[in-house]
Every structure is written in C-alpha cells, then in structure tokens.
Specification:
This protein is mainly α. The chain has four helices and two strands, in the order E-H-H-H-E-H.
Length: about 120
C-alpha cells in the first residue's frame, strides 16, 4: 500500500488532513483515480472472460443454432451470466476500496495496483 499512496484516514493533525483533502479533490488526483478505475474494470473483465469463456461460448452457440428452442438454452444461461457480472462488480469494488478510495495516489500507482508484485 505504501507504493500506491497514503490513506487520508490515517493522517494526523487538522492542517495536514485539510491539505490532504484538498489534494485528494484536485483535478490531477481525480484523473488518476478515473484512469485507475478504468484499468480495474478492464483487468477484472479480462480475468472474468478468461475464467468463464465457456459460459459465454455456450450462450452464443445457443443463439446461433438453427434448431427450434435454442433460444431457451440461451435463457437458461442468463443466471450464470448474471452471477459472473456480480462477481466482476464485487471484485472491482473491493480493489477500488482497498487501493483508491480516500487514498492520495503517488505517480505510478496504477502499475502497483495492477501488478502488486512489481
């Protein structure tokens, strides 16, 4: 976490907290948070696609098959896709809460968030 930035909640002193709050709401920090959010969405989406690609392939196959009733197969796959999106959303929220929310980000923080071992 030290490579990413400093959490505002852990700042002691009223003056330092006020300066940290103003820095947190600066345009540069807002742009950096937005960019990291987009990268987290892409990271988790690609990870989810790699994990559950057979589910999506079955859905596409059900819609492409010429047989009567193949659309019903596609409807049965909707709960699986909904669960996949719920897991995706939860992962993005957890990473955002852990690394970005109420954190003064250092330059290059995105690299440390996306690849924590580097």
């Amino acid at each position: 976490m030290a490579a990413v930035g400093r959490r505002i909640d852990r700042v002691e002193g009223a003056l330092e907290r006020a300066v940290s709050e103003s820095l947190y709401h600066s345009p540069a920090q807002c742009r950096q948070r937005f960019g990291i959010t987009v990268m987290l969405v892409l990271k988790h989406t690609l990870r989810g696609l790699l994990f559950s690609w057979p589910l999506y392939l079955l859905g596409v196959a059900a819609l492409v098959l010429p047989e009567h009733g193949s659309a019903w197969l596609g409807l049965f796959l909707l709960p699986g896709i909904a669960v996949s999106f719920a897991i995706l959303r939860r992962g993005i929220r957890e990473d955002y809460q852990r690394f970005v929310y109420r954190v003064l980000l250092k330059p290059g923080a995105a690299r440390h968030i996306l690849w924590p071992s580097s």
